[in-house]
């Protein structure tokens, strides 16, 4: 219903009371500096157009009063209705009067409702550890974990987060990645009645401890001081030791006496943590494996590598290696290195001692081994033994694994053949030979000399080769790649007499300038 006051006017002339609209209740939030006193500055003129109800503002005036009597008398009007200081629940009287006919007026009233802005808390910083090394001080934050801390007892309040630079809304607050460290964000809290309060949230990334190494620990009796590697890290770090990875990750069940830990060969887990700057921030840590070695001296292997002797033990501790007997030309020496270089070939006895005083004695026959290399290799047409890759000294090639069937280094490679290489050091040739199986990359009859032709094939007596350009020479090889015959041609046509050759397969290598081609020929 309209809140209108009907006035009886008596004068010589009769006046019509203006037909005004019903003003609305003005609802605002207490946004001034005194946010809890239920009073603030309000723009009353939001009701001007409503109460004029179509009347021309050029013909009718609108004024506001704190009491009905003031409105009737037209006295003590509110001087600045655009920013009137009023209280919650206060009634304001509004008067519409005809300009030039002040006795022609109507009065209505409306209420003021001032809602209290939400009471919120300034949150503590949201702090996380760097996710992984290296430390880049960037990570993902769930900002909403701070909602309850910020809103406190504000029932039904909603929280929004904004970039501080341009105050734009962060649309995915559950997965926000910082780009500076620390970073400050703006926060807006809205109550159920639409009133807003503001604060800021600082997010920060703490570093992980850098990895400084975790060398193996050794023990002679199975009792380990797990703290031996602690001095590799900052003295302020918290270092604890655990039997399982799960315990280390959860920081539960640390070893109570890490300086006297009993164990066989195995591992324990070390948690290296940086103390938190304050109790509200996380402790950033890394988990490392610590290898434990009970120093039982065991020789895993001894081998000749060229003219060197290499001894391999079961751990990487420092050992003392002593030659107690050796060939006459070898010196009896002691050293910490497990590699004895340039040793004469023959029988040796080594005495090895570890830091626990354990000693082991081994005897070894130092013989020259085969050269090193891939046992299967490829080649292209026209390549020879010189093109195979083998590592050793004074390499010599053979057609068989044993025996004296020596091959020339210029022996032409044959697809599918196996060639055997030995090496010679200090006048001693290895009895072991490296077998290398070769595979031709292209087919034997692939033409590499344009214009080359040959006939007949199979051949009994004379084999003829012609070419559009000069043929320099022709060579004949058997299936082992051994050279049987070579002859200079220096003409566009050449012949080979096969009549004295045994029946079988031969390879004809034709050279013309920089080009070569190998031909497979059958002798009948």
UniProtKB/TrEMBL annotation:
Residues 1-16 form the signal peptide. It holds the Pfam family Por_Secre_tail. Residues 455-521 form the Secretion system C-terminal sorting domain. The keyword Signal applies. Keywords: Signal. The keyword Protease does not apply. InterPro entries: Secre_tail. NCBIfam families: Por_Secre_tail. This is T9SS type A sorting domain-containing protein. It comes from Flavobacterium zepuense.
């Amino acid at each position: 219903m309209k809140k209108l006051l009907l006035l009886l006017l008596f004068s010589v002339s009769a006046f019509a009371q203006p037909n005004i609209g019903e003003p609305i209740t003005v609802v605002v939030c207490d946004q001034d500096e005194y946010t809890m006193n239920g009073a603030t500055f309000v723009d009353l003129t939001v009701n001007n157009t409503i109460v004029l109800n179509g009347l021309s503002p050029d013909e009718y005036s609108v004024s506001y009063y704190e009491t009905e009597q003031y409105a009737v008398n037209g006295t003590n009007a509110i001087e600045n209705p655009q920013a009137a200081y009023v209280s919650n629940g206060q009634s304001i009287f509004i008067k519409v009067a005809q300009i030039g006919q002040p006795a022609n007026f109507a009065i209505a009233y409306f209420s003021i409702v001032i809602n209290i802005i939400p009471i919120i808390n300034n949150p503590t910083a949201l702090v996380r550890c760097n996710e992984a090394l290296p430390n880049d001080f960037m990570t993902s934050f769930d900002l909403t974990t701070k909602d309850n801390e910020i809103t406190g007892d504000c029932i039904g309040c909603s929280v929004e987060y904004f970039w501080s630079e341009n105050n734009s809304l962060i649309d995915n607050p559950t997965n926000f990645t910082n780009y500076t460290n620390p970073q400050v964000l703006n926060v807006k809290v809205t109550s159920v009645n639409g009133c807003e309060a503001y604060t800021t949230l600082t997010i920060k990334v703490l570093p992980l401890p850098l990895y400084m190494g975790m060398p193996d620990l050794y023990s002679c009796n199975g009792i380990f001081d797990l703290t031996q590697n602690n001095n590799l890290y900052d003295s302020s770090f918290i270092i604890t030791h655990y039997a399982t990875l799960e315990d280390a990750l959860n920081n539960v069940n640390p070893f109570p006496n890490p300086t006297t830990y009993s164990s066989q060969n195995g591992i324990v887990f070390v948690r290296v943590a940086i103390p938190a700057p304050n109790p509200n921030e996380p402790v950033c840590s890394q988990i490392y494996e610590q290898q434990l070695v009970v120093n039982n001296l065991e020789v895993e292997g001894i081998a000749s590598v060229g003219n060197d002797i290499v001894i391999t033990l079961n751990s990487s501790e420092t050992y003392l290696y002593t030659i107690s007997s050796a060939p006459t030309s070898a010196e009896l020496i002691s050293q910490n290195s497990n590699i004895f270089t340039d040793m004469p070939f023959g029988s040796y006895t080594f005495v090895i001692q570890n830091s626990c005083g354990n000693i082991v004695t081994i005897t070894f026959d130092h013989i020259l081994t085969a050269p090193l290399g891939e046992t299967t290799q490829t080649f292209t047409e026209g390549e020879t033994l010189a093109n195979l890759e083998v590592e050793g000294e004074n390499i010599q090639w053979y057609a068989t694994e044993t025996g004296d069937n020596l091959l020339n280094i210029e022996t032409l490679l044959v697809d599918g053949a196996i060639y055997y290489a030995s090496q010679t050091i200090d006048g001693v040739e290895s009895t072991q030979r490296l077998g290398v199986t070769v595979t031709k990359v292209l087919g034997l009859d692939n033409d590499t000399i344009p214009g080359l032709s040959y006939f007949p094939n199979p051949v009994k007596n004379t084999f003829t080769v012609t070419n559009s350009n000069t043929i320099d020479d022709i060579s004949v090889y058997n299936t082992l790649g051994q050279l049987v015959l070579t002859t200079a041609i220096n003409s566009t046509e050449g012949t080979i007499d096969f009549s004295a050759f045994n029946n079988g397969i031969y390879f004809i290598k034709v050279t013309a300038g920089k080009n070569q081609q190998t031909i497979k020929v059958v002798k009948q």
